Every structure is written in C-alpha cells, then in structure tokens.
Amino acid sequence: MKRLQGASAKEHHLSEETGDRIRAEGGRLIRAQKGNRVRLERDNPMSSELASDAAEVGLDIREGRFQRWLALIAGVSSVLSGIEVTYEHYKGSYSRRVMYTPVILSTALVAAGVAGFFSRRASRTILPVVSVLTLGDCAAGFYFHIRGIHRKPGGWRLPIVNIVMGPPIFAPLLFGVSAYLGLLASFLRRSGQEDNRVLLPRPAHGRHWAAALTGEHEPISWAQDVREGRFQKQMAIAAAASAFFSGFEASYSHYRNDFRYKAQWTPVLLAPILMIAGIGAARSVRVAHTWLPAVSALAIVDGAVGFGYHARGVSRRSGGLKRPLYNILYGPPLFAPLLFAASGFLGLLASLLRRGKE
Predict the structure, then answer these.
(1) CA distance 262 to 335
(2) Do 241 and 173 share a structural domain?
(3) Most buried pick, 71, 72, 297, 309, via CB within 10 A?
C-alpha cells in the first residue's frame, strides 16, 4: 500500500514538472489515451498559428477584403502577358503602331497594380482607369487578330491552317484577364479596413426614414456585391472563359509541335473540364465548393509543370541559355503555361467567394 502511494506521489510530482515545463515553453497539452496508457502531448503552436492565418485569409476573401493582394496579382499577371505580347509582336516586326499599345499598357498596369498594393487612393483612381483602357485595347487587339487571320491566303476558307499559322486569336483576351482582376480590385475593400458607418445603418432606398437622419443611403447593386465578396458566379464564369482561351491557344500551339510529348495533351484535356466546372459553379453552390477547387488546383499544377517543360525546351535549343533572347523568341512560349495556371487561380478564388444575394 505504501509502495502504491509512493508511486502515485511520484507520478503527480512528474506531471507537475511536465506541466511547468510546457507552460514555460508556451505550448498546450493534449491528453491522449491508448488502451490503459495515458500520455500528454504538446500541441505544435506553429501549426495552430498557420491554421489561424489561413482562416483569417479565407475570411478576408469571403468578405471582399483583399484589395491589396488582388491589385498586386493583377500587376504580376500583367508582367507575364506583357512579356508574351512583347516578343510576339517583335516577331511581327511591329508592322503597325497599334502593336505597341499592349506593351505600353501592360507596363502601366504593372505600375498601377503595385501602386494599388501600397495606396488605397491609387487602387480607387489609377487602377480602374488603366484597367478599363487595357480592356478596350484587348478588344481592339482581338479584332486586329481576327482581321490578320482573314487577310492570310485563303482567309477563313482555310480556318485551321490560318488560325495555327496566323496571329494567336485569343491572346489579346487572355491579356484582358489581368485587366479584369485590376478592375475587380478597385471595388474591393482592404484587409483591416473599417467601414465608416454612423450609429444607424445606411438604408438601401433614398426615401427611407433613416436616410433623413444619416444623410446618405447605400443602394443594393453589383458594386456592393463585389465590395462584400459576393461575386462567386462572375468569377466562376471568368475562370471558364479564361480556360477556354488558354486551352484553345495550347491546342494549336502544341499541334504545331505534333504533340510530341504526351504531357502536351494535359492542358487540352484539362481546359474543357475546368470550363464545365466553372459553368457548373455558376449554377450550383455544391459544384463551386467541390469540383471547381479540385479541377482548379490541377490546372495550377499543370501550368507550373508546363512552365518547366517550356523552360527546358528553350534551354535545349541551339545555343541554349547562351542565346536567351533568340531562343525565347523562337522557342516555345515561355510564360503561356502560367497563363493557363492563372485560369486555375481564378477558379480557386471563385470557390472561396460568396454568392450574390438572390
């Protein structure tokens, strides 16, 4: 009996020492039982901190409080599109002055996106103006590319040959994705930003009695939905459209190479699946929270792998990295796979957003 009491006292003393050590280290104890054995485990504070940060980021996205990061993403994606259009138009010898406009506007969109990241005023003034101008330029570029295909020998009577060998038909619209993100960012709120509200809520109708007290009202509109992160349907449709543009460009670009590698089929096969998931997400909440993020994650991974293959293709050309400019110009389009990954990013972002009030 005395031996049992001594053992229990010793265990109690050890448990107190263990508790003091864990508290000193700033951890948290978890009681785990397996059979008749009971042990104490210390929770990892780093994992709990990462989980807390992820939950905070998810909350900011759902509430439309990610203006800074979306502005920066619009600028970074504009860099990729700008580089692609720069050397593609260089191949065309800049035969028309209008071919300089996307190069100039991509630089302006990069500057506006970075400025919007640091300044709320820039994101509300400069960024939307540059984004609208870029969208207009993309529409004009799409028209010029269609006209360029029409003017080739045979015109639209030889559509496959002229689309494959002519100017990339949907490349200007892919550039418009960056401008679309920049325009959306101008309507969002910043993380940690508090709404300037009075004691009474702002009414939706101007003739409401509360409008006489507050002197203002907040009409229900699409801009308000965007500001509150309620544009899941629009973003899902944008992801589907971007997947179509990227998949179409990848299909005839890889067709030129006769699909030499089996991996070249992956973006062609994934693009329609992402399109279906995006359209389905616009109609179903369940699809938006299950199929869309899964397919979008695959598209992002495929775009990253494709970027590796394209970089390897550039390095394997004659001269390799000793002639970088020449091999980038006439090798596989270096950043095109990352534009396909951007379609996956749009789908993943759409899965985190909320739907508009119906």
Answers:
(1) 20
(2) no
(3) 71
- Cβ–Cβ under 8 Å, residues 167 and 142: no
Mean pLDDT of 309-324: 91
Helix orientation angle between 232-256 and 336-352, rounded to the nearest 10 degrees: 160
Predicted TM-score (pTM) of this structure: 0.79
348 lies in some domain: yes
d(C-alpha 268, C-alpha 348), whole Å = 19
Residue 39 lies in a domain: no
**Tokens found for residue 297:** 């994650």
Same domain, 179 and 297: no
Give yes or no for residue 192 having a pLDDT over 80: no
Are residues 75 and 165 located together in one domain of the fold? yes
Residue-wise DSSP of 296-353: HHHHHHHHHHHHHHHHHHHHTSTTGGGSHHHHHHHSS-TTHHHHHHHHHHHHHHHHHS
What span, in angstroms and rounded, lies between the C-alpha atoms of 134 and 349?
22
CA distance 107 to 130: 10
